[in-house]
Amino acid sequence: MPFVKGQSGNPLGRASEALFTNAIRKAALTVDKAAKRRKLELIAEKLVAKAIEGDNWCIGQIGDRLDGKPKERQEHEGVVDHAIRIIWPGMPPIGKGSDSQISAEGSVPALPSPDPKVGDNRSPSPRWEDGGYDQ
Q: Is the pLDDT of residue 27 over 80?
């Protein structure tokens, strides 16, 4: 069927994504005839009972509902004021001129000054020398 300007290609509209959720909500909120209470309350009680028995998944579900899920790790860009700054005398400047946000004033040295006599005693991996790894 060719495209017709001004006419929807889906005349019934987008199917509701909440159909299953609404069906569960409707079923959970009905009253259980035997217990004369909402089924949702019975489900919640079973969840708590399983958590008390030691079911880790149930414990996690209860924690998530009562305290909220833990926030995911977030990475921030830009200057972080609480960063640890390691500075030693004679350290080359970081940044260009006045743009440098790190200064030695009032800083407490975290490490001793590097000793120029101590060399780097690491050797390259033999795999790099013989053409190993993707080259």
A: yes
The angle formed by the CA atoms of residues 104, 108 and 111, to the nearest 5 degrees, is 100
Element holding 42 (H helix, E strand): helix 39-53
In SS3 terms, 105-130 reads as CCCCCCCCCCCCCCCCCCCCCHHHHC
* Side-chain half-sphere CA neighbours of 134 within 13 A: 0
Q: Can you tell me the distance from the alpha carbon of 39 to that of 32, in angstroms, rounded to the nearest whole number?
A: 6
Q: Which segment, 25-39, 71-85, 118-132, is predicted with the most confidence on average?
A: 25-39
Evaluate whether 106 touches 85 at the Cβ level (below 8 Å): no
